[in-house]
Amino acid sequence: MQPKVLTPKQLFIGFSKIGMSGFGGVLPWARRTIVEREKWLTSEEFSAILGICQIVPGPNIVNLAVCVGSRFAGARGAVAAVLGLTLGPIAIVLLLAMLYQHYGYLDAIKGLLRGISAVGVGLIASTGFKMLRDEFRFPIMLLVVAITISAVTYFHLGLGWVVLTVLPLALFLANKKARRL
User: Fold this and answer.
1) What is the C-alpha separation between 181 and 160, in angstroms, rounded?
2) pTM summary value
3) Which of 5, 65, 87, 119 has a CA between 20 and 30 Å from the CA of residue 19?
């Protein structure tokens, strides 16, 4: 099977659609576009790349754009993906900031913003559940999920400590999972 090839223009357009689709977070739209609609990556590839993007500094979605863009079209693809992801939303945010400056005191605007934040939480949870479904094919990997949730919620560990704690087991199990496939 030939590896998929995407041009910087295709990456720019694809990531523009992703960037313009989300409010308060576009990760759910990124997964839907990249995995389900365009089929640029498999669900497993997306999860693996996202995992890397979550442990390096910077916004996860921008890191994802860099990784996906560079995978398909090198440095030019990375730049195209990031620009596609950010240019439209930056213009909209500047416009909304001007509007909020004038109308932010209104109760209707405050209620609207609370509603939008609730939708964002739901979309992120939905993406998490979709990604979790992939792990049911190798159930022992759910142990990593459980330890991670415990480390964050019960022990209140920061990201660095969670990664240091869970990474050895995750790498060991991922290696076993890769050998099975």
Assistant:
1) 30
2) 0.65
3) 5
- N- to C-terminal Cα separation, the chain: 17
Q: How far is CA 84 from CA 13, 16, 74, 75, 91, in A?
A: 6, 4, 15, 14, 12
Residue by residue, DSSP assigns 20-61 as TT-SS--HHHHHIIIIIIS-SS-HHHHHHHHHHHHHSSS-HH
Segment 42-63, tens digit of pLDDT: 998 999 899 889 888 889 999 9
pLDDT tens per residue across span 154-172: 999 988 899 899 989 988 9
In whole angstroms, give the CA distance from residue 30 to residue 49.
Answer: 12
Nearest-10 Cα torsion for 65, 33, 60, 19: 80
